[in-house]
From TrEMBL:
Annotated source species: Anaerosacchariphilus polymeriproducens
Every YlxR domain range: 10-84
Pfam families per record: YlxR
Protein name in the entry: YlxR family protein
InterPro entries cross-referenced by the UniProt entry: YlxR, YlxR-like_sf, YlxR_dom
Source taxonomy: Bacteria, Bacillati, Bacillota, Clostridia, Lachnospirales
Cited CDD domains: YlxR
UniProt cross-references to SUPFAM superfamilies, sorted A to Z: YlxR-like
Length: 92
């Protein structure tokens, strides 16, 4: 019997759908309460995941999904950085 590797699934804070962790962007709140975009998915801290789509980003912004997941207020710059990150991913 071949071993089936379990695919780590995460819920998008925008559309609330469960998707493969690798297909999503992770927003991280560190122990120092700094907010960053974790491109490696390995950094320590509380993470919230969002699909790589502008629609999900807009939904997360309107529903305050990131704020709820990370239990902190999210500055506009983080949303702008996420938007830039998504544009980069689209052009790849």
């Amino acid at each position: 019997m071949g071993s089936v590797k379990k695919v780590p699934m995460r819920q998008c804070v925008g559309c609330m759908e469960m998707k493969n962790k690798k297909e999503m962007i992770r927003v991280l709140k560190t122990a120092e309460n700094e907010l960053t975009i974790d491109t490696t998915g390995r950094k320590n801290g509380r993470g919230a995941y969002i699909c790589k789509s502008k629609e999900c980003l807009e939904k997360a912004y309107k529903s305050k999904g990131l704020e709820r997941s990370l239990k902190t207020s999210i500055p506009r710059e983080i949303y702008e950085t996420l938007e830039k990150e998504m544009k980069l991913l689209e052009s790849e």
